[in-house]
Batch of 2 targets.
Target 1
Amino acid sequence: MAITREEVLHVARLARLALSSDEADRMREQLGDILAYIRQLDRLDTSGVVPTSHAVETGTPYRDDSVHPFGEKEEILKNAPDREDDFFRVPRIIED
Amino acid sequence: MGFEAVIGLEVHAQLATESKIFCACSTGFGAPPNENTCPVCTGMPGVLPVLNRKAVEFAIRTAVATSCRVQSRSVFARKNYFYPDLPKAYQISQYELPLAVSGHIDIERNGTTRRIGITRIHLEEDAGKLVHAGAFAGAQTSLADLNRCSVPLMEIVSEPDIRTPEEGGAYLRRLRDILVYLEVCDGNMEEGSFRCDANVSVRPRGQKEFGTKAELKNMNSFRNVEKALEHEIRRQIELIEDGGAVVQETRLWDADAGVTVPMRGKEEAHDYRYFPDPDLLPLHIDEAWVEELRKTIPELPGEKIARLASRYGIPRYDAELLSSSRLLADFFEASAAAFGGNPKVTANECIQWKEAIVAGRLSPETIAHVVEDRETGTISATASKTLVEAAIGTGKPVRQIRDEKGLTQISDAGALEAIADKVIAGNPKEVESYRAGKTGLLSFFVGQIMKETRGKANPRMVQEVLKAKLG
Amino acid sequence: MAAIPVHEWTLLDAARAVREREVSSRELTRALLERIDRMNPRINAYITILPEQAMREAAARDEELAAGGARGPLHGVPVALKDIFCTKGIRTTCGSRILHDFDPPYDATVTGKIREAGAVLLGKQNMDEFAMGSSTETSWFGPARNPWATDRIPGGSSGGTAAAVAAGTCFAGVGTDTGGSIRQPASLCGVVGVKPTYGRVSRYGMIAFASSLDQGGPIARTVPDAAAVLGVIAGHDRRDSTSVDVPVPDYLAATGRSVKGMRVGLPREYFAGGLDASVRTAVEKALGALVSLGAEGVEISLPHTEYALSTYYIIGPAEASSNLARYDGVRYGYRTEGAKGLIEMMSRTRGEGFGAEVKRRIMIGTYALSAGYYEAYYGKAQKVRTLLRRDFQEAFAGVDVILTPTAPTPAFRIGEKVDDPLTMYLSDIYTIPCNLAGIPGISVPCGMSPDGLPIGAQLLGRHFDEEAILAAAAAIEREIPLPRVAPEEG
Ligand SMILES: [Mg+2]
Ligand SMILES: [Zn+2]
C-alpha cells in the first residue's frame, strides 16, 4: 500500500503536525508498511456485518439541566501558555 | 431564458436550557470572559461529555412540531477541525444518524400554502468566541473566550424547496415562531440565538438538475437573509447569462455594501473526518417519550392563525400579527372573552399595544374595558389612547383613570339634543345657509357643540343629532 | 512478618497492619519512599515522586486512625498512579513533552476513589507517551526499565507502574489498558495486572488514547491485592457516559473461589507460530495447575484473531487522532516559540510536543478517517470488530474463561524494536482482541524464562465477569509460587 509524500504532507496538514523533511520521508515508509499490513482486512467479507462503535452498547445516559458552576476559573486559566487577563491569547490567524 | 432559484436553509437555534449540552456550566449571556467554563467545556485532558436531557427534549418537541420522524436511535459524531475557539478540536454533532428526519413546515403566501420540507434536525454544541485583540488593524494576537463552548444548538436543515427570497423569509419567520411557541429557543437573530446559512443555486426554469450552489453566511436578520438571497440569485443569473459559471464556495453577506463576497482566505478543502463519538453511546429515544412530549406541544402558529381568523372573524392579516407571539394571541383571546364586542376592534387594540402587552404591562381587562367604553360611546378614540398609555404608565385600572381624568364623553342623546337646540337657536344665519344647501356648515355646528361641552361630546352622536335637527 | 522487608509485603498485609496499628502509615510510606530513592534511578519508573506530600498524607491517615476511623480498605497504604490519571495540583504529563508542565484543575474519578479509600499517593508513574507503546521507551521522561533485567523493557504502556510494583516501590498501582497496556507489562515484570470490562472503571480524568478501548485497572504483586484495588476503583460514574451501572461484586472473595468444574478455553489461534517456547511451556503449566484443581481444558477457536491487530491499528489511531487534537498549544501544555501566525503555532507545537510514535498514530488515524478512506479503513475495522466480539460471545457459550499467553515473548531489550513499529505492535497480539471485545482480562505470573525473565498467563472472561478470571488467576498463583519482587541487583 504505497502512500505518496504528497499524501503524507496532506495528512500532516490535516492533523496540524509540522514534520521535518526527514520525518516526512520516514513517515511515508512506515505508514506504507503499516497500511499494507492493515489492508489484510480486505480479505475478509464483511457485507451485512453491523459496525461496532462500542463494545458494550446501551443508551447514552443523561444529566439533568441544572447549573453547577465549576467555580475555579483560575485553575483552568493558569495552565495557559499565553493569556491576556482572563482570555487565552493566541497568535493571529494569517491567511495565506 | 427564465431562471428559478433553488434555496435550502440551515438554521442553528440555541436551545433555551439553563446549562450547557455536555457539562453543568451556565448558558447565560454576557458573562465575563471564560466565566462559564469548566474542565469539560474547555477540553481539559481526560474529561468526558454527559448529555443534557432537556436539550434532547427540546429537539424532540421541535421534531414533533415540524412533523419530523424522531429516530429511535441516533448517534453523536465528532466533527474534527482545528480552531482556537474549539477546545477539543472537534465539535460534537450528529452526522449520519440525526435525531429527527423528514418533516415539513407549511407557509402561506398570498392565499396559497407552500410546504417546505425539513431534511433533518440534529443536536450539537456551539464553539467559543475569538476576539481580535487590540483596537487597531493588524493586531498580532487573538483572544479566546470559551463561555459559549458547548452551549446547546439544534440544527434544522430544510430541503431545497424554497424558490424565492420571500419564501425563505416566510419559512424562517414561521420556524422562528414555532421555536418560540415551543419555548425551546428565544429566537433572537441579532444576539445569535437563531442563525441562518443558505445554500443557493439557480437553474433554467424547467430544468430538473440543480445548478452549482454557493453557501451564504453572516446574515443576522430576517431582512438580511432576504436581501442576501436576492442579491445572490441576481449575481448567479447574471454570471450565467454573461457566459460564466457559478463556483461552489462560501460567501459572506456584507450588509453595509449589500453584496455577497467570497469568504477570504484559502479554505483548506474541508475534511472533517466525522466518526461516531466513542465517549457518547447512541441516543435511544422510545416512542413513549415522544408521545409524552407530543402532549406538551401547544397550538402552533399556523393553526392559531387559521383559528383566530375563523373564530373571531378577523382578517387573516390581523390573525398573523396577533399570532406572531403566543402571549399576544392569548392576550387577544382573553380580552375578547372579557368583552364580547367587535373582535376586530379588540384585535386592533392588541396589535397597537403589542409591545406593552408582550412586556406584560397591560392586562386583558384594560383592553376589554377601553373597547367596551368606545363601543358604548363612553370614551372617544383619542381618550382611549390616552387611557391605555396612562394604564401602562401607572398600572391603575383603566376605568379608574378614566373617571379620575374625566375622560368620559357625553353620549346621552337627551343632553346632546338640548345642547344642539341651544346652538341652533343661537346661529340662525348659519342654519339658514345650511338648509339652503351649504351642508359643509355641519362641522361648524359640531365645533360649537364641542365648545359647549369642552370636547366631551360623542362626535358620532353629535353628527347624528345635528343632522336630524337641521333636517 | 518482621522477617520480610516492608517493601515485599502484600498490599493486603500492609493494609491490615496499618488498620491494626502494627505499623504506622508514616513508617510504611517512609520505607517505600526510601525504596523508590534506591530503585528509581535504575528503573525510571516514576515521572513524579511526591515525598513531602506522601508523608503529609500518611501522617493524616495515622491521625484519622488514632481518632478511630479508617477511610476505606486502602487506609494508609502507599500506592501510585500511572501518569495518565489527572491529579489536581500534581502535574500530569501522560509521558509527553506536550503536557510536561500540565497541572490539572481536577481529579480523575480513579484518583478520587483511591483517595477516598485512604491510600497514600507516592507519585506518578512512567509510561509510553499517551499510552502508545509496548515498552515504555516512548516516554518524554526517558525509558522505564525492567527491574528483573535493567537492559530490558518493562513492557508498556503502563511499564512504569509494572516496574514500580515489581521493584517493591509501591504496594500497587493503577494503570490503563487500551490494547494490553496493563497485562503485557504485568506479564513482563512478573506481577498481576487486570484490565476490567469496558465500562467497569470510570474513564473520567483518565487521559484518553482510544476512548472505546481504554480501561483503567490495577497492577499489584498478588491476585488478591489486585482484586482489592479493583474493588476500590470499579463502579458506575455519572461523569463517564460509557461507565456501566452494574453492581460491583466482592472481588476479594472471588479470589478464594474454587475452580473445580471450571471450563477453560484454549484458543488454538493463540498457540500458533511466533510463540516463544518458554512462554508456551509456562502457560501449559498454568493450565496444568487449573486442571489439577478440577478445571477442564477445552480447545476452542477464535477464528478472526488474525485480524485483531489490523483492526486495532485502525480504531485506536483513529480515535487517538481526534482525542489528541486538543493539544494545540492554546489552553495548556507546551507551545512552540516564535511561530508566525496561528496555524504555524499549532503545527509546530504539535510537531515538537509529540514524539515519533504518537505522531505516527495520529497520522494513521487521520488518514483512516479522511475523505475517501473512511469506509476502507475505519468502517471496515468497525465491522471486523463486530466479528471479533462475536468470536468471544460464541466461545463463552461453551467455556467460563479463556487461557492464553499474555505476550508472545518475555521482555525484549531496550532499543530492540523501537524503530520497527510493526514488530513492536506484534507484542500485543494476544492482548488486543480483549479490548476490541470489551471483555475483562488478567495477566498472572506463571513461570520464568531460562534467562530468568517473568512470563505471564492471560485469562479472559465474559463481560462483567471479573470474578471468574480472578478466581482462576488466584488458583494459578497459589499453585505456581514465584518470586514477586525483583532482586535488587537485577
Ligand atoms: Mg452545525
Ligand atoms: Zn463547562
Target 2
Amino acid sequence: MSERHLVRDLMTVGVPTCAPDTPVSELARLMLERNVEGVIVLDHEGHAVGVVTQDELIQAYQHDAPHTVTAEALMREDVPELPPDIPLIAAAQLMRDQRVRVVFLTHNAAGITYPAAMLTYRHFLRHLAARTDADLADLGIHARRLSPMQMFLQKREAARRRRLGPTGAASPRQGDLP
Amino acid sequence: MSERLLVRDLIGPAVTCAPELPLAEVARLLLARDLEAVIVLNRDGHAVGMVSQDELIAGYGRPNRETLTAEDVMNERIPQVRPDLPLAAAAQIMRDLGVRALFVMPQRGGITYPAGMLSYRQLLRHLAARSDEELNDLGINVVRQPTPRSPAR
C-alpha cells in the first residue's frame, strides 16, 4: 500500500453546501444519506457564511420545534480550516484539540476564498480500515474525478431523465455529446 | 411527528467487541455499520470500556498503530444515560460530556451490560423523519424477530 502522509493525500475534493434557510430535517437527511459530517452554508451570492456540523445540528434539540430550525440559526460562522500540506497525524491531533470532526481546505480564485475540500474523522477511519490502496482510490488530490464539463453533462442528463421519465421518450440523437 | 420522545423511544442496539480486536478491525466495524462507538466486553461478559471514533482517532495518531487493539485505546468511562430522559436532555448530556453516544447499562446478576445505545445517528434519524413510521425499527417497543430456537435434540 502506497503511503499517504499528508492531508492532501486523503481529503475529499468538493464539499456539500446548503442555503441559509434549509431546515434541520433536510440537513439531517443529507447527513444520513451521504454520511456527511458538516455542510457549508452559502449565501445567495455563493459566499460561504458558516458551517453546520452534526454537533450544531444536535443543538436543534434546545429549540422548541427542532425540526423547523434553519441552517442559519444553527451554523457556526468560523469554518474550521487546515492547510492541505501538513502531515495527517498532525491534522488528527489538531482536530482533536479543537474538538472538530471536519476541517475544510480553502481555495482562492478570482478574489474569493471558498472551501473546496474537506477532511473528516471518517477519512481517518477509512485510512485505518484500508487493506489496499484501492480501498482509498476515491480520496486525495489524485483521486479520479470528473472534469467540470463531464459533471455538467452528467447533471444535464440526469435532469433530462427526470423530465422525460425512465423510458426516455427522447433518446439521444446521433451526434449528441455523450 | 412527536417532539416529546424519550431516550427509550429511539434507542438502538449496542454493539460489542473483544479487547484484543485490532484497531483496523474496529475501524471496519464502525464504518460497515455506521456506528459511533462499540463497547469492549471482557471474557466474562463485563463491559470494561468503550471505543468511540474519538478513541480511534487518538490511536491513529500513535506511531505503533498497526499493533494496537481495542483494549489499548478504549476509554474506561462509558458515558451512560437513563432510558426515561427526554431527547433534549440526552442531547445536552452529550454536549456536556463531549461524546456522541450514550449507553443504557443495566446491572443484572452482578454484571453490567450494555442494553442499548443512543447516538447522534438516532437523533439525526429523528430530526430527518417525516413520520413516526420511519422510526419503527428504533426504541424499546420495536418489534423484534424472535431468536431462532436451536434444533431439537
